[in-house]
Amino acid sequence: MELYNLPHSPYAARVRMLIYERDLAVDLCDPPGGMGSEEYRSLTVMGKVPVLKHGDRYLSESTAIMEYLEALYPDGKLTPEDAWQRSQQSAMIRYVDLYFAQALFPLFQQMKASPRDQQVVDAALVNLSAELKRLQAWYELPELAPSSSLSLADCVVMPVLFYVVSLSPFFGENEPLLATPVLAERWAWAQEQAASKRVLGEMAAGLKAMMSPAN
Ligand SMILES: N[C@@H](CCC(=O)N[C@@H](CS)C(=O)NCC(=O)O)C(=O)O
Hints:
Blueprint: E1 2-4, H1 10-22, E2 27-29, H2 38-43, E3 51-54, E4 57-60, H3 62-72, H4 83-112, H5 118-139, H6 152-167, H7 181-190, H8 194-211
Helix pairs in contact: 1-3, 1-6, 1-8, 4-5, 4-6, 6-8
């Protein structure tokens, strides 16, 4: 199996975190032909990363890939056995994709904008701090309370927190997790776990490369 991925992508990062945490036999590769190439588009409907190649089949969408890997290798899976707990976790992951990630997009856009639109930035920061509180509220549910090992929710959340922590200082917000101590604690904890530490380091290197003047 191969995972087509890029270091900075939070969607690819969550799958890599699962792969590292579970020590799954999946090779990590760049998208064949490169992003946007005819070759890559011919393999995947969406043309995005990540994509899992299994034999001659290709699966896109990070959450579907995580579910597939968890189903394929059930021994030691991170997915809870309990149906209710599993569904709460799915709901949290859907929250991250449908709502939380949306709160980050205006900041990504304003990073590239010249000049920046301060009104957009201010509104985005207010919205982001509201979403951080909602994200924390998910971790406060009994079914999703932070545990002593990485959960699937952590695999999804830590890469987006990486962007919260990395982008906020560019907009004058140096401690974006100050008002959300549960998130701040889990974030600090994730820096010490082998799988998340490795992925967050790869993301930092990927972001640095992406932001270098050559790119
Ligand atoms: N919903 C998708 C999102 C994947 C996604 O947006 N990937 C970005 C990188 S972070 C991408 O490939 N962008 C390139 C493009 O859209 O052409 C997933 O969960 O896998």
